[in-house]
Queue: 3 jobs
Job 1
Amino acid sequence: MTTYFNEQESIKSRLGDDDNRTLKVLADRYIGANPPVPFAFRAFYRSGVLQNEDGMFDLNLGRRFPEARPGQFSYAFGLVWSDGERNLDVLFHCLGPIEFYFNDERTYRSNVIDEIKPDASVKLNLNFVKGWNRLFIKGKHTAAGFGCLFGSDEAKVRILNVLTPFAERQGQAGWVYSEPTDTDVFEGSPLPNGLASEKAYGLRWLPTCEWSESELVKLVCERLFGLQPGKQVYAWTKLNKVSSGEESCLLKGHTAGPLTVWLDGKQVLELAEEGSFQVEVPLSFGKHDLLIRSICGSHAWGYTLHAYVKGEVVPLSAPHKVHGSAEPWFYVGPLDSSIELAYEELIRTDRIYAKSSESDAAGDKTYWQLDRPDAWIRPYYENAMLSNKWTVGNVTNYARWDYPLGVTIYGLLQAGRLLERSDIIGYALDHVQSCTDMFEYSLWDREKYGFPAINQQLVMMKMLDNCGSFGSAMLEAYQEDKDPGFLPIAQRIADFILVRLERKEDGAFYRICQDEYSENTMWADDLYMSTPFLCRYAGITGSSEALDEAAKQFLLFRKYLYMPDQRIMSHVFDFKYGMATGIPWGRGNGWTLFSLTEVLEVLPEEHEARPELVHFFNELCAGYADLQAESGLWHQVLNDPDAYQEASCTAMFAYAFARGVRFGWLEQPDRFINASLKAWDGLTRLAIDAQGNVHGVCSGSRYAFTADYYKKDLLTVTNDNHGVGIMMLAGTEVVKLKRWLSHPEEPATS
């Protein structure tokens, strides 16, 4: 069998049968490797390059420069930071002749077909190095067009964050692009240095990031919003007192119209009209929130303000770290004077603000800006900088919404409950809430910029992968904290699954997909991507429709994917060929059995589908038990003893067998007690090392009609998110099984 480490390095060799401590090591290692660092906030210029709904950066230079002449050149330049070596597919749609340089090497030059054929798409595979990676595009104007569209393949999953080059813009998000030039400035010359000054190349780089002299003479609110009599703007900064003790602080300045000032939530000044002001307030060591409301006057809009302690200036600092900005003030507006906002609603970065009391659409709302031309504060998911589909290695998954992390969060919650560790539960809750708290913002972000910078899969929901797994974990977390923000998101997911998701004529879920390869297919995985969420949603809302749908889908998927002669499931049914692939991928089967236990746990005894589903559960368990290897593990392709032994499906079978015994669903419980305990023993000897690293978990799968794809192309990844959470879940169920075996008269609990 495949071995990943010497058994002397296993968790079993160190802890023996101390399952609770094994769970502790698993959970603590994961949390230690994925610290609770939320989104990064960056300065972003909306006048710059935006993404379209497919996540492609719109570098249509012809639209930006309608006066450009044929033969002129323009350049686009961006930086990508990678925390380690990464491989990523990128796409080009050429609008004219382009050359693409990756890390200063020409990687692609368009041909006439690429440039002229409508909707032609070119895919390149790039190997990003650890550190800065340089993306440089050279476009030449022709009558056919100018520029290109560029982005990562499956952009909402394989996140590509482009940062702005040049020292003057360090830390900002987005591309820079140059005004057209008659000659190719970089023909035979080195490409620009992304960390040098932008002034070194004799080009004007856009978007503009500095105010003109005529704008600088205006007061700040007028500079940002123009004159809008009666409108209001809120401004937020922090006073940073560095001397010890409490001292008197003088706030002094001038306003062009009505002004209100709050310090740490207490109103300290209110002026009804234009004029100078000064007020003394007590100020202790540290940072203090200073909030201002400015109302537009008849001829000017804005204010000046300075703070002094003993005649020395008290420095101001931004309320939140914003990369690429040294501006100390955040601004939100313009808002109708009828809008009344509490102080607590304003000193935060996780909400958007209605411009008027009638605002309901995202376009009628706004967010924080900086005192720069069209410069906005924008949060980005960057914890796995240059994220592949399945994030591994030296990255942190915190604040990401995706399906493997759904089962990870579920595993942390269950491990935390069993171990009575509120810190583990709290970490899982915080991860979920980091996504849900920003849900409304992320919808607005998509409306404002074309493609969201956070919560990409939740916002761009197009398939079950995007919503069901993490949505289920969110509703599991709801048991711990009845956060009302979870329910609108759950409703959105339920509407997608129950109303908008594609179905076959008999009602079965399937995948339309946009690529020809996966088009018109049904995946065993999707039982997990849908039915656990539907069960939890039914439990919270009382929706019988959701629970009925979960039961129905199992019976429909059985019709297409079940292999009755072996009592196991094919991974995929391909409707293009009118047949199942016949390959029983381990984890696809694991998802099936795992999810069936979720349905059986909550399905009422009197439900019409229950007897058939209990019988199906027994058939599957028997089929899987027949294929368990002597080591306790199952093979990557279940019925192929030459395939490597895989950990995530093994954990799922151990989990499901243990639950089947405890809840009394199995007709031959003794057989499955032994199989579950044997599987867990194998995992602790062969897949979990003494540091809590999880080995032997295959990477995310596509599908094939041949077992060789699963055996030879889908290799294992250490600490892959598909395996860490389910390992914790398997461990918790084995502990519960052992307890139940000591007291079988006690009812089974979740």
Job 2
Amino acid sequence: MFSGIDEVDWASMEHAYGPADDVPELLRGLASEDPAEREAALDGMYGAVHHQGDVYACTLACIPFLFELVVDPGVQDRGGVVELLTSIGGFDLDEDDEAEIDEDEIEGAANYAMAAAAVTAGAGVFFELIADEDPGVRLAAPLALATLHRHPVRVLALLRERLPVEPDEEVRLALVEAAGRVALRHRPLAERVGTWLGLLASRAESPGLRLAALAQLARCSPDGLPGDVVPVVSGLLREMRAAPDESGGPAESAAPAAGASPGGTAARDDDEPEPVASAETGRGEHVVTPTLVGQLRSLSAQENAGRGAPWAADLLRTLHVGLDDRVGDRTALLADQLRSPDRRQRIDAVRMSGGLIRAWRGPYEELVALVGEQLSDPEPRLAEAASHVLEELFQLAAPAADALAARLAADPGGWVKTWAGGPPGLGSTVKALARLGDARAVPALAAALEREQVAHDVGFAVGHLGAAARPLAGPLRRRLADVELDENAYDRASPLLAGLTALRTGEAAPEVLRVLRGAPEYRGEWLRTAALRALGAFGPAAREAVPELRALIRRPGTASATEAAEALWAVSGDADAVLPVLIEGLRSDQVHDRRAAAVALGALGPRAAVAAPRLRGLLAHEEVWLRVDAAIALWEVSGRSRESVAALLTAWEQNRHVRVRVAECLARMGPVPEGSAAAHVLRSELASVRRHNAMDGGYGSHDIHEDEKLLALCRQALRGTGKGSTP
């Protein structure tokens, strides 16, 4: 094995972490008889040689040796090597990708293409591996064939031939998944695959196999799904729960037994590495190693411990992705899952509910109430998952408000969470209730303010509570007065300043002024900004700060001068003093500072009409956010909407993330004329079932809140409850 490996000039190549001279050792480690060494080697391959999917020259040089490993029956854990080859060779560059490649990416693109060609050229070996004695290899081979082989008709025929004779249920599911992959990659075969999947979905003996067929149908041929897909899937889940697991008992999950670890495995009294089931196969033993692969396998094994069908959650996720915008069906299916006696199935359903609500608009009252019911379950992972989902929902969490309040009262230890590497933060239940504006969160916030170190997000929670949080003004003011103005001042003071700003606590002006005057050099600019925003929020109640603010505006063109001018206007209303400073701020080299100046000029309204030509000149700026801020300010200072609206609608189409800001302005302008371009974009937004900020593969904690705010603003703009405008 590995003939010629030492003749390769590995030292001349590089991987993600430097010279690739360690690659031969990694390859030999994959063939080791020691499971820990094999796992460490696989981790090294993914971590360095194929780092985050990248393909280097050393990755290409590894391909022949990886093929040697997968065809040698004496090598253990070959399924992992098959998966590695699939990942290395499975990257597709379509025409759009090729058109966007710049000079710096040419070499990387060439490597991807060469890797795909090299692995595809050897993909015939996977035909033999589909009947290998090792179930882990059989599990990985179908997807490798579907992804890499050049003859999809032959692959599909083999998958169908293998299914009736394959003894392992999980491998049978992989065969079905591979058929779906073939259909997605080769669309002319989608109808043929869909017909076969439809037969499996209705006739297969195993409920898991029928569910897998439905999931793949949803992905590649959704029109082939039965009209009653929700009751069908619910029935399959009931069958799977009732089926006996390997121990002979029903597959339904219960709470962990006494003495069990949080993952559901028995606690151990020694420090020996505990063998865990393979994340890929659910079989065999792997020693837990301090590698990423080892940690992922260990977490997966803990998560799946005791499950009769640990792959069911993946099938349901695949089904949900395939159902896409069929929000009603997905909601009904999740509601059924949330009523399941199987706690693990409910955990999966809670998490999938969060994913659904995060990406799609719809009526979720029943679903949210069911998520709220999980808060009282004694299984800590279930209650924790539910509270995290509800935390992201803001006003949509209203149907779970009482459940959140009950959970909060029952678990004061969870009001504040501490972390090893950062400041403490509020627990998700506290945040969820506060974001609803529910006064029952106030005692938890009061307790957080009494801790030695205040939670970093307490000020934001206060902001959502509004007047209900007025009792916290005193503690916030007292804690701010005690903050030492050293290099840690920003971390200590910023949550308190945020809370006082939200409450507009003008009586706290002396404490805020102390911070403004004594801000240290380290993060001092951030701290002064927070203090100036607080003073601006206090308005005339902060008049004792006027001398300080006048002194700060004497350096026009700087960020601090712009911020001080904005605060001075809010406190004193002295337009003559602040107008020159803000106009000068529009000339700043920093886009952020120009935006701040534009927003502040808009707040002056007609008193800043002299700035209209300069704001108009920014409507063609390359930075979309600056164009938006300038357009809004131009309308505010001139009272004329036509050119501002045109610029705002252009930005709306160019960048979906500006839409909330644009809609706020349109709502304030007053009734949007029926039949206008603005009315068209607003109605189109309201008609869309997809959230405007939904992302594939990522999300922000405020995405749902921002999208719901956008919808409300669109409706308000169309109703015409703003202050009106002139053409």
Job 3
Amino acid sequence: MPASPCLTDTEEGRRLAAVEAEGWHRWGPYLSERQWGTVREDYSEGGTAWDYLPHDHARSRAYRWGEDGIAGFGDDRQLWCLALALWNGRDPILKERMFGLTNSEGNHGEDVKELWWYLDATPTHSYMRMLYKYPHAAFPYADLVAENGRRKGRNLPEYEIADTGAFEGGRYHDVTVEYAKAAPDDVLMRITIANRGPEAADLHVLPQLWARNTWSWGRESWEPEQPRPLLRLTETGAVEATRGRASPLRFASLQPAAFLFCENETNTRRLFGTPGPAHPKDAINDRIVEGRHDAVSPLSEGTKCAAWTTVTVPAGGSVSLRFRLGPAANPDERDIAAFDAVMARRLAEADAFYAALQRDVADPDARLVQRQALAGMLWSKQFYHFDVRRWLSGDPAQPAPPEARRHGRDSDWTHLNNADIVSMPDKWEYPWYAAWDLAFHCVTFALIDPAFAKGQLILLTREWYMHPNGQLPAYEWAFGDVNPPVHAWAALRVYRMDQAMTGKADRAFLERVFHKLMLNFTWWVNRKDAGDRNVFQGGFLGLDNIGIFDRSATLPTGGTLDQADGTAWMAMYSLNLMRIALELAVEDPVYEDIATKFFEHFLTIAEAMTHVGGDGSGLWDETDEFYYDVLSLPDGRQVPLRVRSLVGLIPLCAVEVLDENLSERFPAFARRARWLLGHRPDLAAQVSRWEEPGRGNRVLLSLLRRHRMKALLRRMLDESEFLSPHGVRSVSKAHAAAPFRFPWDGQTFAVDYEPAESTTAVFGGNSNWRGPIWLPINYLLVEALTEFGRFYGPEFKIECPAGSGRYLTLPEIADELSTRLTRLVLRGPDGRRPVLGDVPLFQDDPHFRDHVPFHEYFHGDTGAGLGAAHQTGWTGLLALLLQPRRDVGGGQVPAAPEG
């Protein structure tokens, strides 16, 4: 039999190789699902983004910095936008975008109240498919707001759309949107409506094409004159779209449709009571819902249009509608058979691509879940546009913003000027990039599109992102906040995965990102080590609610908080940069000197974690055999905060194994390292000894000697503490019976174990890390166990679970943890997926049970999905856990099979 093809042998793989030359990425799913309620659109004095542009304004107000829509598709500058609108004949408004609660309306913070899934996608966006569920009855907007408003307590569950009865009796439409590209700039859109109910039901279907509004704000002196775009109905019954010097496009319906036109401009009359455009952004809504014929343009032209079709879908039946957006020079193709042939061909190519990727994944359910995880990653790309300097100062053609904004949120990030395609954590709840989320995204993307993954890591370090002082932008609400420094780790993993896929080592990428990360490392050393002791105070570091204080704020006790996780992250950063420098030294020995520098940084951080301030005390607690944050009080006292949480497990992640031929490959580095360890026994004593090589004469660099590693793993693998049936909890379950309490100045600060949503909000927003499982640290722990296993070998075993009498090697424990994590989403022996919780509709209904949501985090005991429902960004790491691993470049990575 001939060998099965590898990824690059498939048609999609060949397209991917030519993606830049042929422009296959020019069009994609680049619209947000929520532009309203974002910082970018907030011009209020006090930074109240949720209130300044709420959902009720979204249909009537032109956005300044982006666009949103259901199943949105557009070009990579977001000049033209295509998305779906629906109306069931009962709703008070068109369904043009996803609805959810603002931060103050939900008892657990912002919260989307719609059901949709990303089911399929290819890396070049040659084929995409998503599913949206739309009730026959009026969408329960008011009920969702009112009932969630009544549930004030954080101990109460959220009121979800499934609780409203909106889907009872199958009285809803499954609306599937597919895109296929006949060519890089020729987009086919097929909308299939399936009626799951017992009676026929009508549905108004309105795919909308519009131009992003770039003309209402006034141009700066340096900006070129931009002619106003135009959509107009032609004699052929299609819409011609023109914009500046760009080649015109044509938008056509392959079945009879009424085209409606208006302007993508704010309805100032409705919102502010002032005169405005005759046919504003919400005119199509008013024509359909209110029956106002005069609402839309009588000239059949504007900057926004919709192809309006009303279908009656029989009970249990389905109807498909077809639309095409492509070059106006193309023939006016309305051949349904030819259209469907392109769709079928692109789907077949997607199947072939994933068949090659999943060649070694035997379980059909695992293949389904992995494909949906990767689809979510690909659908969550977004055109992200934000010029902070202009946002702060306001636009020439608009009223000046309040003066206080110049000294408010992000006012020290005026260099930031983004207009790029970026991977989002979640295009509804987090429709803005987050630095450390993006690092995890890139590692997952490297499985299918390493070029995109490399480009994203480089993008984050470019001068229009990275601060001149070397800080990486954290996230839109506070670019100056601090995320864990995992980007060197991500760059190294992406480099190795790319090498596994292509057979080539892209050292140019690694060198490019390495130089920028050295600047960022220097920023950490200079800004986040308050006492110059190699102990770090990074702030919340992504673990919002993990401790008793808001770690990003001034402490109520005064003093500083020496963070076990922040310090461990920096030790890990040092090792990652050291390893990258050694990789670069293969071709340029100059990098051996730099590798030595980061080796020394690692040793000094390891020493400091044990001897903070040189007085013998440290972040390691000998009595509990665990790492804790230490509170340094103004009077000089140091108080360990004995909360057993992920904070104390993150030191496991700072591990690197160097292979036996180190001295031959890097003689200068090896010589200097031996000298350093020989002359600084205080440093050498903190890590596994250089002169005690492990299996195959490998050398271990870790914060943990054997005894401490075993002690941490005993806690981590104890099912009464951290080990859940579905992964490692963020806080030890022991705190359920014995909460940690810290009295201070008449107050008592406490942490207990809360496996679902947190009942307190130390950090603000939907703070929740007091027990749930989440993927990023779990994934790093899997990698750390695998790396430790390379050193200790098959003879070294640990009891897993603790107290079970079952002893496993470290790689076997990594596999066990991977299995528990993937058990979150895979169908179990009882036919249930833990992620779907106890909702019978989701678990039992054949139209729900195989659509997998990728939640932000998961219940610490049951595995039910919690938080953002489409956090495919870091939860997409499940796709890597389902993929077999290969040895590449001195380590193991998930990789596509070789051809």
